[in-house]
Amino acid sequence: MNPVIRREFVGILRSPKTFAMLMTLTALFSATVVLQWPADNSSVSGTQSLQVFRVFGYGLLAGTIFLVPAFPATSIVNEKNNKTLALLLNSPLSGLSIYIGKISGVLLFSLLVLLCSLPGSAACYAMGGVSLVNELGALYFLLFCMILQYSTLAMLISSHVQSSDAGVRITYAAVFSFLLVTLIPATFLSGTTLLPSSFLTAAEWLRCLSPLPAVMEILGDGDVGTSGLKQNSTMTRFLILTILSSAAFAALTLNRLNYRIFDRSRSKGTITNDRELSTRLVRRLLYVVDPQRRKTGIPWYLNPVMVKEFRCRRFGRSQWLLRLIASCAIISMLLTFLATTSAESWGVTTIGPLLVLLQVILVVVMTPSLASGLISGERDSGGWEILRMTPLSTFRVVTGKLLSVVWTLLMVLMATLPGYVMTVLIKPDLAPQIQMVLICLFWITLQTLAISAAVGSLFRYAAVSTSVTYVTVIGCFLTPMLVWLAREAPFGHDTVETVLLSTPVGAALNVIGARGFEDYQLLPNAWWISGIISAAMFIVLSIQVWRLNRAV
Amino acid sequence: MTTQAPAIEIKNLTKRYGEFVALDSLSLKVQKGQILGFIGPNGAGKTTTIRILVGLLKATSGSATIAGADCLTETKAIKRLVGYMPDDFGKYDNMRVSEYLDFFGAAYGISRGKRNKRVDEVLEIAGATHMKDLFVDALSRGMQQRVALARTMMHDPEVLILDEPANGLDPQARIDMRTMLLRLADLGKTLIVTSHILPELARICDVVAMITKGKLRAAGTVDTIMREIQQRRTFEIMLLKEAHVQQVAKKVTDWVESEGKTSDKSHQVATEVTPAETERMVRFSTALTDEQLAPLLGSLIHTGETILQFREVATDLEDAFLYVANEGTQALGETPRASSPISQGASE
User: Fold this and answer.
1) In a domain, B322, yes or no
2) Which spans in A486-524 are helix H?
3) Which chain A positions have a beta carbon within 8 Å of B115's beta carbon?
4) Which of A180, A479, B212, B322, CA to CA, is 20 to 30 A from A241?
5) Which of B89, B95, B138 sits opposite A382 (nearest CB)?
6) Is residue B336, in this structure, part of any structural domain at all?
7) Tens digits of residue pLDDT in A38-82
8) Complex ipTM, two decimals?
C-alpha cells in the first residue's frame, strides 16, 4: 500500500474532529429522513418520497461542498511548511506516487462522507418512487465526480499558495466560482440575439461546469438557467468537463511536485519611487493606487490596526479593492442591461432577485475570507503577543480589525448600486422596495461579519478558523434556502417562514418579489433577529478577545 | 556613596498553575545599564518570568517592578518602559519593513513626523537600513531578528527584554547581534537576554541568573559564579594505551575516595570519574584541593602507568550552568541530568 495513502487517510481518521464530523453528518442525514417519514404508511406516495429525496440530495450536495475541499486545500502547503514535503521528495517515492497517495486519502475520506448519508438514502429508496440507478446511483456518481474535481482543484491551489489559510480561502472561492459563477453567463445570455451563437454555446458549456444543473436534473427540479428548457445533455457535459478539468488540475499539480516547488526567490522589495521616470509614469497609468509605491506613515486620525489590516492583506491592498469595485459596478450594470434587453420574460422583477442573490453570494464568499482570521491569523503568526505589548486598547485593536472588513464590504455593496439605480430608472415604482432590499443587504453583511469574526476568533490556527467559518456561514445562509426548497412538503408554511427569519436573505427576496417568497411575512422580524444574532456574535467576539487579552 | 535604585527588581515572585509551581519565590535585581543573562533549561520558568515582567501574565504572589513601575498593576506604564522581543517574530504578510515599523510606531502613539525619523534610527542601530523596503515575510531568520530588535526599540524603551535573540542565527549574525546588544547597553538601556548559546551570554552579560524548575539557582557576575563553580574542577588524564583506561579510572576512583574520607569537606568531595577509551582519556571532576590532588599523579606513575598529560579543564559558563542545573535536580531528589560532553567523556 502506498505509504502516503496510509498516512493521509489514517491521519484524517485519527482526528477526533473528523470522527465527530462524520457522526454529526450521519445523524443529520438520518434525521432529515426520520423527520419527514410519513406517520401513516398509506400516505407514502412517489411524489412525497421525491420531495424527501430532493431535500436529501441538496443537503448531501451542500455537505460535500462544505466539508471536502478543506482537506486537499491544506494538503500540500501544510506538508511544504512543515518541511516534510522535502523529505517525501527526497525519498524513492515519485511525484506521481505522492500525488496519488494524497488524492486517494482525500477521496477515501470523501467516500466516508458519502457513506454517512447511506441511512438517509436507504430510507428514501424504501419510501418508494426513487430509482436506485437513475436517481440515487446517478446522484452518488455525480457527487463523486464533483469531489474528484474539487479535490484536484484544491490540491493545485495548495501547491501554489504559501500558507494553509490562503489555500483554504482561495479553494472555497474557486469552488463557489465553479458552483455558481459559471451559471451566470448562460442565465443572462439565454434568448439574447445581441451576441453570436458561439458565445451562447460557450456559455452553455461553462454552465455545465457547475454540478448544480446536473443535480437539479437528477432531483427532478428541471434545470437552473435554462428558462424552462430541459437540457438532456447537462449530466454528460458535466461528466466530460469534470474528467477533463480534473485531469488538467492533476497534471498541473504533478508538474509542481518536484524541487521547483521550493524554488522561490525572496522578493527584492522593488519600490516605484526609486525607478525611472518612464516606469513611474506607466505604473501611474496602470494602477490608480500603485502597490509598490512607498507608503507614507499612518496618519493620526486613522486606527493603525485598520491600516495595518488593509496593508498586510494582498486582497486588502487598495489597487485590488478598486479593481473589485470597478468590476462589480460594471457587472451589475451589464447584468441589468442584458437581462432587460434579452428576452421577453426577463423584466426588472426577475433581475431584482438575481441581483440580490449575487450580492448575497459575494458577501457570503468574501466575508469569511476577510473576517475569520482577524484574531486567529494574529495568534497564528505570533503577532497577538506583540500587539498586546503595545499601548493600543483591546477595543481599538478589535474595532480597527472590524473596520478594515466593514469598509471593504461596504465598498463592494456600494459598487453594485449602479445596478439598482438602473432598475429604479426602468421601473421607478420599485424605489421603496429597493430601499428595503438595501437595508436587508446591510443586515446580511453585518450578520455575516459578526458570525465570521466570532467563529474565527475561537480557533488558534488561521486555516482551521477559515474552514470552520466558511462551513458555519454558508450553513447559516444555505439551510433556510434548503428548507424553502422543500416548502410544499414536507415543511409547512409556518416552518419555512420561521427558518427564513434566521437571515434577512428571505426578507430581501420577499421584498423584491421573488417567485416563491411572496407568501411570507418576514419584515421587520428578520431585521430584529439579524440584529440580535449580530449582537450576540459581537458579544462572543468581545468575550473571546477579553479572554485572550487578560493576564492570568 | 549613592545607592542607585535597580532598574528591575523581582521579589519572591511565584507563579502556580494548580499544583504545578512554575516560579518559586524568585528574587532578582538588575541595575540600570546592565545586561542580565537569564539562563535555564527548557521549561525552567524563564519565559514565565519574562511574561510576568512585561505584564502578559499575573503572578500568584510576589512583586516585580521595572523602573519603579509595578509589573502586575501598572501595565500601561510597563508597555512604555519595556521593549519585548519574543522568540516568535510576529510577521505580517505583504508588509514592507518600513510599513511594519511605522505601524508599531503608530501603535505606540509616536507622531508621523517623529516616526519616520525613528524608523531610520532604529534600522540604523539594528544594522538593517538596507532592509527598509523589503517585505517582512520574505526576510531570512537573521534579518527578521534585526527587524524584531528594531521594532522593540521603536518607542525608545528603558528596558529591553529579549527572548532568545541569537536563536537560529549563523555565526556572523550572532557576532553582529552581540555587538548590537553591547551598543544598546552603551546607550544606557537595561537588557534581559535569554539564550541557550551560553558562550554568547558569557561574552556580553554583566550579570547572570540561572534558573531551574522555577527556582533561582545562582545569580551574580559571571566571575562570581565561575569562582563558585571552580570549587569542583574537571581534570583529564591522557594515557599512552587505550587498554589501560579502565584500570586507571578504577585507580583514580579508589584514590579519590580514600582521600575524600580523610578530608574535612568529605561531603563535597563526591567525584565523577569517566573513562573514555577511544580518546585514551580518563576524566574526573572533584572538589579536592591542589594539595590533595598533587600526589595522585605520582601515585599513578608509581604503579606503572604511562601518563602523557595530566591537566585541568577550564570551566566555562556552560559547565557552570550544567553544574548548577544538576545541583538543582539533586536537591529535589531526582536523577541528575547528563553532564556536558566533556565531563561525560563522550567518545563518539
Assistant:
1) no
2) 493-500, 505-512
3) 297
4) A479
5) B89
6) no
7) 555 544 556 667 777 887 888 888 888 878 888 889 889 988 888
8) 0.73
In a 3-state reduction of DSSP, which class is residue B217?
strand
- From B21's Cα to the closest Cα of chain A, the distance in A is 15
Structural domain ending residue among the three candidates B155, B190, B221: B221
- Across the interface, of B79, B99, B138, the residue whose CB is closest to A389 is B79
Out of B92, B108, B133, closest to residue A269 by CB: B133
Contact B138 A299 (CB under 8 A): no
* DSSP element (H, E) containing B315: none
User: Is B106 within 8 Å of A304 when comparing Cβ atoms?
Assistant: yes
Domain ranges, residue B266: 231-314
- Chain-chain contact of B54 with A269 (C-beta, under 8 angstroms): no
Number of structural domains (chain B) is: 2
Instruction: Say if residue B56 is in the same domain as residue B107.
Output: yes
Q: What is the nearest CA distance from B144 to chain A, expressed in angstroms?
A: 13
CB A172 within 8 A of CB A468: no
Inter-chain CB proximity B82 and A389 less than 8 Å: yes
- Find the chain A residues whose C-beta atoms sit closer than 8 A to any C-beta of B: 163, 266-271, 274, 294-300, 304-305, 307-308, 311-314, 317, 381-383, 385-392, 551-552
Smallest Cβ–Cβ distance between A392 and the set B88, B107, B135 belongs to B107
Q: pLDDT tens across B212-252, in order?
A: 888 888 888 877 777 666 667 788 899 988 888 999 999 88
**Is there a domain that residue B258 lies in?**
yes
Rounded to whole angstroms, how far apart are CA atoms A368 and A408? 13
Pair B185, B51 in one domain: yes
* Residue contact A298–B58, C-beta within 8 A: no
| Largest Cα–Cα separation, chain A | 83
CATH assignment of the domain containing B152: 3.40.50.300
Q: Report DSSP state, residue B88.
A: S
d(CA A451, CA A475): 11
> Does the predicted model carry a pTM greater than 0.80?
no
Cα dihedral A31, A35, A36, A38, rounded to 10, equals 120
The list of chain A residues with pLDDT below 70 reads 1, 32-48, 188-195, 222-232, 314-318, 335, 338-350, 488-490
Whether B18 maps to a domain, the answer reads yes
Which of B132, B136, B181, B130 lies closest to B160 in space, CA to CA?
Answer: B181
Residue B293 CA to residue B255 CA, distance in Å, equals: 10
- Do B242 and B309 fall within a single domain? yes
- The burial class, CB within 10 Å (0-12 / 13-18 / 19+), for A286 is exposed
